[in-house]
UniProtKB/TrEMBL annotation:
Gene3D superfamilies recorded: N-(1-d-carboxylethyl)-l-norvaline Dehydrogenase, domain 2, NAD(P)-binding Rossmann-like Domain
Organism: Talaromyces islandicus (Penicillium islandicum)
Protein origin, superkingdom: Eukaryota
Segments forming domain 6-phosphogluconate dehydrogenase NADP-binding: 8-155
Residues of the 3-hydroxyisobutyrate dehydrogenase-like NAD-binding domain: 181-302
This protein's record includes keyword Ubl conjugation: no
Name of the protein in question: 6-phosphogluconate dehydrogenase NADP-binding domain-containing protein
Length: 327
C-alpha cells in the first residue's frame, strides 16, 4: 500500500528542507501518474520549482486542508509550527478525516502540545522529524523518526517515505513526543561530535600535526559521518563564502541544542557537552553579528575553539578566498 497512491497529500512549508522533500514527492507523483502535490507557502514564489513540476498551489491553509487528507508540515521552529497548527485547527474542515505529519524539529513538549490540540478536533497526528541536511533531502537520503498512535498507518508512511525522501525510517513509539525526543538527542550527539572534532583539529594545528592526516585517521577509525564532519572544518564549510548560505544554519543549531539542554533539565540531569557546545555556538552567533550578520554553519563553533587557542576564527582555507582580503 502506497501513501501517495491512496491519499491526497498536501505540503505546508517550503524552506530549504521542505522544498527539497516536497520536490522529491512531486517528482514521484508525476512519475507514477498520480495527482499533483497540493502545497501552501507564505511566500508563494518559493513554490515555483514544484509548480513547474505539476504541483498544485493552494491560496490558503484552509484550502489545502480542505483538499488534502494527509498534510505534511515543514517549519523552521516551534513558534512557526504552533501557528500553522492553530490555523489548521481553526478551519471549517472535518479534521477527523485528516492526518497531520510534522517533519519540523521542535521541543518534545511542543510536539505533545500540538498533538493534543489536533486531537481535540479529531485529527490524527504523526511526529516525523528528519535527520539530515538540505543536500541529503535533495538526494532522498534523510533518516526519519515516526511516532503516533496508528501503527498500521505508520508502517505505510514509513515505507512510502523510504521509497521517496528517506534512506531509513524508524518507528519510535505511539507517543509523538518520543520521536521529537529522539531527534533532540540526535542533535545533541551531532553538536557534541562537532565540538570534539573542532578541539582535536585545533590541538593538531597548534602542535604541528597535519590536519589531513588527522582527518584521514578520523575517517578510517570512526567512519564516514565523522570524516564528513571533519571536512566541514578543513574545507571551510563552517564559514561560507560571503553572500552564500550555510549548509546547516547556525541559528537553528542553537535552537536545537537548547532543546536538548532543556529536556535534560526537565528530568533532573544535564548534557554538559551540549552546554559547552552551546556556549561556543552562541559566541559564533556574536561573531556573525559583529561581521554584518554573515551566514555561518552550525559547525562554526570551530571558529570559536580556534580563537580560544589564539588562532584566527578563519582557517587558512577561508583566509585564502579573494573576498576575505577585505576582512
Amino acid at each position: 500500500m502506497s501513501l501517495f497512491a491512496t491519499y491526497q497529500v498536501g505540503w505546508i512549508g517550503l524552506g530549504s528542507m521542505g522544498l527539497a522533500m516536497a520536490t522529491r514527492i512531486q517528482d514521484h507523483l508525476q512519475a507514477q501518474g498520480l495527482p499533483g502535490l497540493h502545497y501552501f507557502n507564505r511566500t508563494a514564489s518559493r513554490g515555483q520549482q514544484i509548480l513547474e513540476r505539476g504541483a498544485i498551489q493552494c491560496q490558503s491553509i484552509a484550502e489545502l486542508v480542505q483538499k488534502s487528507s494527509v498534510i505534511c508540515i515543514s517549519m523552521s521552529d516551534d513558534n512557526a509550527l504552533k501557528n500553522i497548527i492553530q490555523q489548521i485547527s481553526s478551519t471549517d474542515s472535518d479534521l477527523e478525516t485528516k492526518t497531520i505529519v510534522d517533519t519540523t524539529t521542535v521541543h518534545p513538549d511542543t510536539t505533545k502540545e500540538v498533538a493534543a490540540l489536533l486531537s481535540q478536533r479529531g485529527a490524527s497526528f504523526v511526529a516525523a522529524p528528519v535527520f539530515g541536511t538540505p543536500p541529503n533531502a535533495e538526494k532522498g537520503e534523510l533518516m526519519i523518526a515516526l511516532a503516533g498512535p496508528r501503527r498500521e498507518f505508520l508502517n505505510v508512511l514509513a515505507q512510502s517515505f523510504r521509497d521517496v525522501i528517506a534512506q531509513d525510517v524508524l518507528i519510535v513509539s505511539d507517543l509523538p513526543e518520543k520521536a521529537a525526543l529522539l531527534k533532540t538527542l540526535g542533535n545533541f550527539v551531532v553538536a557534541g561530535i562537532m565540538e570534539i572534532i573542532s578541539e582535536a583539529h585545533v590541538l593538531a594545528e597548534k602542535s604541528g600535526l597535519d590536519s589531513q592526516l588527522l582527518e584521514s585517521f578520523l575517517g578510517k577509525k570512526f567512519g564516514d559521518a565523522v570524516h564528513s564532519d571533519s571536512s566541514r572544518l578543513t574545507t571551510g564549510v563552517y564559514i561560507p563564502a560571503k553572500g552564500q548560505k550555510a549548509t546547516s544554519d547556525l541559528h537553528l543549531a542553537i535552537k536545537d541544542v537548547q532543546h536538548g539542554i532543556d529536556s535534560a533539565e526537565a528530568v533532573g540531569t544535564r548534557l554538559k557537552v551540549a552546554e559547552v557546545a552551546m556556549e561556543n555556538l552562541k559566541r559564533a552567533r556574536d561573531y556573525s553579528d559583529a561581521h554584518g550578520g554573515r551566514a555561518l554553519d552550525s559547525s562554526s563553533l570551530y571558529g570559536i575553539v580556534r580563537e580560544d587557542a589564539g588562532l584566527d576564527f578563519r582557517n587558512d582555507i577561508v583566509r585564502a578566498r579573494p573576498e576575505e582580503e577585505e576582512h
